[in-house]
Queue: 3 jobs
Job 1
Amino acid sequence: QSVLTQPPSVSAAPGQKVTISCSGSSSNIGNNFVSWYQQLPGTAPKLIIYDYGQRPSGIPDRFSGSKSGTSATLGISGLQTGDEADYYCGAWDSSLSVWVFGGGTKVTVL
Amino acid sequence: QVQLVESGGGAVQPGRSLRLSCAASGFTFSTTGMHWVRQAPGKGLEWVGLISYDATYKFYSDSVKGRFIISRDNSNNTLYLQMNSLRSDDTAVYYCAKVDSGDGGFFFDYWGQGIHVTVSS
């Protein structure tokens, strides 16, 4: 059971938008910054969003992030087949003094 | 460019030890915090632990505390994970990850390619 809760899967047609929620608590998302990672099949995770909504260089603006209270959301617009991957949210948990990941969400492009 | 290359993985029997290494290049290793993250077959990411840039601070997940030790050699730009008393549920791909920070938080901006560890009799 992960400290951060994500839906196991989301799907949409090419060109559409999906959103992935990440629910936590005041000790992690509520008071610490969230980052998001994309893991394509058979590869290492890759940073796509940090500090809730900032994108590293090279990450297209189709990827967006936001936070409200103790939850964070990743949005992927203009969905492409190359976006099919597992997506993980993560944050530091100040009460536990550990980094926590969500369980991961598999994005499927229909 | 930033490179993180893990080595030292393989198959080991339960109860034995194994040491992973992560060779870093392309950034100032001696001023950068580092983490280990693992992923069991077919499962999600699990944080293992972290070490501050100068090894002053180390934190571990409950699942490895007391069995795993993270260390670093800043003169050789290398991160280590000493894994003792290995169990079957330690079977995973192990990643080293570099830390960066933004306006307030930290995150993992680069990851190694991962190294397999299999614990089985």
Job 2
Amino acid sequence: DAGITQSPRYKITETGRQVTLMCHQTWSHSYMFWYRQDLGHGLRLIYYSAAADITDKGEVPDGYVVSRSKTENFPLTLESATRSQTSVYFCASSEEGAYGYTFGSGTRLTVV
Amino acid sequence: GQNIDQPTEMTATEGAIVQINCTYQTSGFNGLFWYQQHAGEAPTFLSYNVLDGLEEKGRFSSFLSRSKGYSYLLLKELQMKDSASYLCAVRDLTNNNDMRFGAGTRLTVKP
């Protein structure tokens, strides 16, 4: 299916475990982004990527790792999950120079 | 730094008009965006302003004043399905052209 897909949709994990959230887009968009959304904070940028093998930190990168070996995939890894990382995570993509972003459906992550 | 402020909640009546305001402070303004987000869903793009003035798109319009650091989203002929959160976002050249979001305004449309 064309579009941007995130998996899993829901995840519960324990403190200290490593977790990877997946993001896949079929448009060959150059830019991809990871945001987290928390009540009272809105969407906050974690990491973004301008192209394969190019990534950069956003507003709240601590505790997260990203990679982009292929244009279509942009996984986000929590190396050692903490309760403060309980959130809804959204992946987004856009073409270079495009106005808006297209968001995936989100992953609701709970760290217990 | 970058501050984006919008009201937390608003309520309006079906068929009415509602204006959602957004104020921002940024060093390298490069566009203002409005997104709609229904509960439990992804944000969807509504509008984009980079020059001063009003952009109209059907029942929705967005206004920008760069000198005042101010935008509003105007929703006309409100429908129940317009109940959602509306997110204001600003792109900043001094922040790697990142898009930063306000906390969102939750709009409830009542019959």
Job 3
Amino acid sequence: DIQMTQSPSSLSASVGDRVTITCRASQSINSHLNWYQQTPGKAPKLLIYAASSLQSGVPSRFSGVGSGTDFTLSISSLQPEDFATYYCQQSDSLPLTFGGGTKVEIK
Amino acid sequence: EVQLVESGGGLVQPGGSLRLSCAVSGFTFSTYWMSWVRQAPGEGLEWVANIMLDGNEKYYVDSVRGRFTITRDNAKNSLYLQMNSLRAEDTAVYYCARRPALGHAPFDFWGQGTLVTVSS
């Protein structure tokens, strides 16, 4: 199984900050990496697919880069509605696996 | 508007069974792969099962294979998860999620989830 490791597991930031979250796969997953946002009590929401493609309707302050084993999600200017938990997920091979999550909290 | 609405969750004793349903609307159900993904209380996300377009190809995470069965009824726009021999570690919110039938697709829409609690 492909293990997905996210870092950090949590971070504190202020509105307007640039935030970067990393995700590392235990083996190459090409560009088959997706990012989701989850707020408490809600279902996850797809932000980025295929490592760098922005899902329709997602603000352009979100961006993703990477290929192979190392990936990053960036939020260029953190907004109040961005305080949430973020998950990466590989869709390269079964079983589909998620990272452990990164909780973005208000500083 | 795309909608996925899960139902069927509840409290069940260890060793018991439960059947979850997911009713979908707003898209052509028969042209999408479908999945169940779960989240234990306070924990991260875990993919549980996939079913392809006609229901003949199914895949499971090792921890549920042989106990859970995913099915779909394209005529009723519905997805199901039959869960047998339930264990305490199956306690979670269960989400149904849609995947475009394209190679290495993400989960692009999710339902709101239904809570399954396995406890005596």
